[in-house]
């Protein structure tokens, strides 16, 4: 059982006797919350099925619903069964309790993270964080405090195995970004074998003139590259191609006939100016505002990059069905 991927809703619902259920080993150390129990008691209709670990009959998710059933005098309750190890069942219990119903306290989530680090040491900090609802940095701190040095490699949220020391991957990502700044986060991540978020961090460090690795935060002494707005033929070809593509987008009814589409087209049109016009705008910025405008431009560039990444992720998800 992979507790982070099971499609719980697709599992069959059955009736089970309350006397067969075990309610210990919950990640919620404070026990049941009386106010939440009262809220559920006043709810009309059937409550959602609880989740039960079949090998141990422990309730993974739904202790408050179980309490309500007992207070009502019920002898049976609707439930879904999951199989797998007890450690995987605990992970699923934690994940279920941070996604809906009464959320776990921060202290409970941290305690759960410590337990999951112990039972799943091969999981990355981000993967543990996604299950427990705390930050990856907090997970890393808990791992260090527990004296867990970790494996040479860990399994990420996407199921891929990555080395704990990612300095080589960051170095390769930096080389790719320098060679082709137009590559998306996903493209770089796929070629190098690191996460898109790591690529985003590398790109940000390069933009600030920093080392691509966190431990090398000194400013890079790179030779400044002059702006080339209207280089020989390359710049003009790119401009013509981009303008031709914009005209095709303007003619597409899916964009032209919707408010969101028209907004997008207007935004594209504002940025689709030729190299000479960009040069005129560049030299028109007052000297005392250069740093401010540069920062503003970089912020907008990051927004567009994130927008592009979301679109590519959406396209990939649609292609995958």
In short:
Residues 14-98 form the ParB-like N-terminal domain. The chain is α+β, with helices and mostly antiparallel strands and 321 residues long. The protein has 14 helices and six strands.
Task: Provide structural commentary.
- The chain is elongated, with a radius of gyration of 27 Å.
- The chain is 53% helix and 8% strand.
- It starts with 13 loop residues before the first strand and ends with a helix.
- The chain is an alpha+beta fold and 321 residues long.
- The chain folds into 3 domains: 148 residues, Conserved hypothetical protein from pyrococcus furiosus pfu- 392566-001, ParB domain (Alpha-Beta Complex); 46 residues, Orthogonal Bundle (Arc Repressor Mutant, subunit A), CATH 1.10.10; 76 residues.
- The strands form 2 sheets. Strands 1-4-2-3 form a 4-stranded mixed sheet. A two-stranded antiparallel sheet has the order 5-6.
- It has 14 helices and 6 strands.
- About 7% of the residues have low confidence.
């Amino acid at each position: 059982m992979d507790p982070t991927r099971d499609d719980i809703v697709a599992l069959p619902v059955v009736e089970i006797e309350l006397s067969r259920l075990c309610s210990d080993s919950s990640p919620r150390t404070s026990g049941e919350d009386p106010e939440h129990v009262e809220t559920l008691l006043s709810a009309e209709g059937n409550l959602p099925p609880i989740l039960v670990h079949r090998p141990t009959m422990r309730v993974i998710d739904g202790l408050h619903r179980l309490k309500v059933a007992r207070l009502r005098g019920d002898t049976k309750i609707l439930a879904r069964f999951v199989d797998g190890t007890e450690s995987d069942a605990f992970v699923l219990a934690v994940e279920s309790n941070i996604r809906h119903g009464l959320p776990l306290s921060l202290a409970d989530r941290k305690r759960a993270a410590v337990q999951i680090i112990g039972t799943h040491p091969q999981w990355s900090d981000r993967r543990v964080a996604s299950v427990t609802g705390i930050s990856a940095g907090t997970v890393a701190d808990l791992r260090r405090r527990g004296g867990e040095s970790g494996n040479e490699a860990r399994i990420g949220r996407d199921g891929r195995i990555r080395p704990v020391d990612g300095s080589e991957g960051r170095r390769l990502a930096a080389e790719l970004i320098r060679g082709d700044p137009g590559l998306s986060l996903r493209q770089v991540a796929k070629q190098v074998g690191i996460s898109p978020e790591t690529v985003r961090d590398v790109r940000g460090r390069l933009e600030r003139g920093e080392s691509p690795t966190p431990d090398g935060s000194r400013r890079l002494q790179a030779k400044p590259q002059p702006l080339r707005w209207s280089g020989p033929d390359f710049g003009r070809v790119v401009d013509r191609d981009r303008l031709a593509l914009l005209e095709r987008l303007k003619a597409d009814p899916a964009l032209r006939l919707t408010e969101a589409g028209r907004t997008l087209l207007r935004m594209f049109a504002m940025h689709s100016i030729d190299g000479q016009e960009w040069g005129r705008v560049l030299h028109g910025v007052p000297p005392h505002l250069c740093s401010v405008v540069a920062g503003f431009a970089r912020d907008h560039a990051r927004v567009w990059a994130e927008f592009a990444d979301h679109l590519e992720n959406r396209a990939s998800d649609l292609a995958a069905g």
